[in-house]
Amino acid sequence: LNAQTHHDCINPQYHTLVNEDKQEYQVHSECSILFELDGPYKAMILPASKEEGKRLKKRYAVFNFDGSLAELKGFELKRRGELQLIKMFQSEVFKRFLDGNTLEECYASVAAVANQWLDVLDNRGVDLEDEELIELISEEASMSKTMEEYGDRKSMAITTANRIAEFLGADMIKNKGLNCKYIVSRTPEGSSVTERAVPCEIFKADPATQLMYLKKWCHTNTLIDSSIDVRTILDWQYYKERLGSTIQKIVTIPAAMQNISNPVERVPHPDWLLKIVRERLDPMKQKNLTSFFGKVDKKTATAAASAHAGNAAVDGQAAGSHAPVLMDIEGMGQSGAGAGATVVRHMGTGKKGKRQEKEDLEPVPLPPLDPDTRVVKLGRDVEAYGTTMYTDFDNWHAYMTAKWRNMSIQRKKRKIEDQDG
To answer: What separation in angstroms does the CA of 368 have from each of 3, 8, 283, 372, 374?
Structure first.
């Protein structure tokens, strides 16, 4: 592929400036297109989209055969400011896809991680300190512009910045680059999520300041000075939906697509996926014609057909002319002796066929090349000499084509020798 690309897509008029004063250029051929082959890898984890018929692009996790992570791209784990709960879940769940010997065992191990983090939200972080809980469920965003430049736009980061200015002063948002760290409260009920962002800085203030501003922002008078608990303020359903969405993309939807029952039952399937699962498991579903047939090895099929034909002939001779003759579909329109079972024989098997195949695997002679030939890889800035893809592409390509053919012949010979034992 690289050789063909170099031959078809090379630019023979590539100019390089060598003298800026005289505007002199050196003209030469250049081809910077180079295809590389990655892998092989042990596993690649691809997430699914929550919407029917759509796919998530440029998101994958790749593992080497030793279990190490080769590459991770596109997930929240690689992004700054994302919900720490989701980042910690992803840091633990990907390596669990290497567990087990079957799909069921694999997804059971993956589901254990998902259920562990769902338990943290269900019991409202009872085993965590307040600081640990805030760090786990907080999100961050940096203001790349000043507040005046945002105008009337609404976002959770803008709401957080305005509330930081309320109790720390307007000077905090005068310049751009403010780092906004926030959580989402459950009140005021009915308002959009962008209006329920609470800056984490408020929990570092004295209790009186916390009480005053939390009552104002949450629109509630039920908070008491001695009982300000972040757990009573948080919108736990919001965080369950965020984590559940990630679990659907990584665990439950891919499992359903591989005919595995939902490994995390607390996270239900989307409606469109439930419909697909019900249709697949419907006992009254009409079957396709192809579902009644299966694949059979050619040798086994040939032996069975020969044995069937031999048994039919023996039974016919023993029973006389009144014995029924077994027929197959192809013989339905025929009559007489030719209406029996059709026997299919493969003429390429046996010693004769293998000997003929070996005779076709004779290596071809390699074309002669100039002495001291050196094959130069694409993209390397080295001096080429002898017969190379830069100096004499046609001869170089003819030589490499013969060499590649001989390598293929050697592989086929080894395969035949292994079959012969």
So the answer is: 19, 24, 68, 12, 13
Question: Looking at this protein, which amino acid is placed at residue 183?
Answer: I
Q: How far is CA 390 from CA 12, 26, 367, in A?
A: 11, 16, 18
DSSP strands (E only) in 9-91 = 11-19, 24-30, 43-45, 60-63, 69-73
| Side chain identity, residue 398 | A
Cis peptide before 40 (omega within 30 of 0): yes
**3 state SS of 326:** coil
Question: In whole angstroms, what is the distance from residue 412 CA to residue 352 CA?
Answer: 17
Neighbours of 178 (CB within 10 A): 20
Q: What is the pLDDT of residues 7-44, one digit of tens each?
A: 888 888 888 888 888 888 888 888 888 888 887 899 99
Tell me how far CA of residue 366 lies from CA of 195, 377, 396, 413, 414, in angstroms.
75, 20, 11, 19, 21
Residue 115 CB: number of other CB atoms within 10 A?
16
> Is the pLDDT reported for residue 210 higher than 90?
no
Three-state SS for 293?
Answer: coil
pLDDT: is 367 or 182 the higher one? Answer: 182
pLDDT digits (tens, 9 = 90+) for 358-374: 556 677 676 666 665 55
Helix (H) or strand (E) segment spanning residue 239 = helix 236-247
198 versus 145: the higher-pLDDT residue is 198
Q: Per-residue pLDDT tens for 88-130? A: 999 999 999 999 999 999 999 999 999 999 999 999 888 888 8
Say if pTM beats, i.e. exceeds, 0.70.
no
CA 152/CA 149 separation, integer angstroms = 9
How far CA 262 is from CA of 16, 257, 268, 334, 338, in Å, comes to 60, 10, 8, 54, 56
Q: What local confidence, expressed as pLDDT, does residue 98 receive?
A: 93
Residue 208 CB-half CA count within 13 A: 0
Distance CA 117, CA 88 (A): 9
pLDDT, the chain, mean: 80
pLDDT at 55: 83
Sheet holding 43-45, edge to edge: 43-45, 60-63, 69-73
